[in-house]
Design brief:
With about 400 residues, this protein is an alpha/beta fold. It is about 40% helix and about 15% strand. β1 and β2 form a beta hairpin. It is globular, with a radius of gyration of 22 Å.
Length: about 400
């Protein structure tokens, strides 16, 4: 894991050149890609790694003794090892899967569904992504458990006093995002998990928006489960992982049944594989996860402390430019934020604004961002969201601000 900040050694223009897509033009304008919270762009090393797998090593994993099968298996398991080191966990506690949504569903169906009962409660925060809401609603419907909500303050900060008061004896599980995909708020998950652990509450942390922006040490956080996705951290789509405490993985039944997750199958019963493989039924996204391993190599070489410092500089510049725009309102102004800014412009619907910005070559997300309860809290149907990454530039921020000024005139 990266720890030291060394700005002097990073040539951010050279870093940007590692990302082929960023050289594109859109609608005749140089692309300004401000949608990395949706999906991150991929460096050439990741693209080439995936291409090389399909050109030279393509075979299924763990099912053949021939050379290609051994090469594929070794590369796939090496990616697991790299990813485990990146977040400071043991590789045998890391279930490779399609991403955060799948990972949280594994916890919902393999851990929560067999344990929860009427009278139990699941505690969630107002700022959760639908992926950390809907699975718990489905489990609650089937078990008779209830959903409780921990609220936020108007600036988008989680109300910790209210959260801790809500940790009553009926609460068996807490779902909390590490970083809000809408507000950019960075939650103090280490403190939150410590308080939950004191009360015997299991914790599920959604880390999708944390790993692309900052150093993440899952062991230090002290949660029970941590879910994250690969495509937001420079890796291919359809990749990610669930980390779970070893005792949980040992006690949890498999979520899916099929090949690869078994030791022996007879018609009178099946002996399941050891964790994490007992949760990895079927042929995985082999090339994707090998590509994710290459993404980890890339981020490690940059240093996540350097990434975090770079994005903090970009965020400060973005906030400075946006506050100068008359009629623009930033939604979510917590003190601790990742490089994600949701905003509204007076007199413009979020979708119209995003469409007109696209005509200027600027890519931002508009909509509810899979966070309906959060939109309801702010009394809006949608926002625009500009989300930065280390490969963005200060010039792009000024281009973005100028584009908003131009769009405002068009809408006046």
């Amino acid at each position: 894991m990266s720890a030291q900040i060394d700005k002097a050694r990073i040539d951010w223009n050279a870093v940007r050149a590692d990302f082929p897509l960023l050289t594109r033009e859109v609608n005749g304008k140089p692309l300004v890609y401000f949608d990395s919270a949706n999906t991150g762009q991929k460096p050439a090393s990741v693209i080439e790694t995936v291409d090389d797998f399909y050109r030279r090593h393509n075979a299924n994993v763990s099912r053949a003794v021939h050379t290609l099968g051994s090469e594929a298996t070794d590369a796939y398991e090496a990616a697991r090892t790299k990813l485990a080191g990146f977040v400071n966990v043991h590789r045998d506690e890391l279930v490779l899967c399609s991403g955060t949504t799948f990972a949280i569903n594994v916890v919902a169906y393999s851990w929560a569904l067999p344990r929860l009962k009427p009278g139990d409660a699941i505690l969630l925060t107002r700022m959760e992504h639908h992926a950390n809401i809907v699975p718990w609603q489905l489990v609650a419907e089937r078990t008779g458990a209830t959903i409780k909500v921990a609220e936020i303050t108007r600036d988008g900060t989680l109300d910790l006093d209210a959260l801790y008061k809500a940790m009553t004896p009926d609460v068996k599980l807490l779902g909390v995002t590490h970083v809000s995909n809408v507000l950019g708020t960075i939650n103090p998950v280490r403190e939150i998990c410590r308080e939950a652990r004191k009360r015997g509450i299991a914790t599920v942390v959604d880390g999708s928006q944390a790993l692309p922006h900052r150093c993440v040490d899952i062991t230090a956080i002290g949660c029970d489960f941590y879910a994250f996705t690969g495509h937001k951290m420079c890796g291919p789509t359809g990749t990610g992982a669930l980390w779970a405490r070893k005792e949980h993985l040992a006690a949890m039944p498999p979520f899916l049944g099929g090949g690869e997750m078994i030791k022996e199958v007879r018609f009178d019963g099946t002996v399941f594989n050891d964790a994490p493989h007992k949760f990895e039924a079927g042929t995985p996204n082999i090339a994707g996860h090998i590509g994710l391993g290459a993404a980890v190599d890339y981020l490690d070489a940059l240093g996540m402390a350097n990434v975090e410092a770079r994005e903090a500089e970009l965020l400060a510049h973005l906030n400075e430019e946006l506050t100068r725009i008359e009629g623009l309102r930033i939604v979510g102004t917590a003190r601790d934020k990742a490089a994600v800014v949701s905003f509204l412009v007076e007199g413009a619907h979020a979708h119209d604004l995003a469409t007109l910005l696209d005509l200027q070559g600027v890519a931002v997300r508009s909509g509810h961002h899979c966070a309906h309860p959060l939109m309801h809290f702010y009394g809006v149907a949608a926002t625009c969201r500009a989300s930065l990454a280390f490969y963005n530039t200060h010039d792009e921020i000024e281009t973005f601000a100028a584009a908003i000024h131009k769009v405002r005139k068009l809408l006046a």
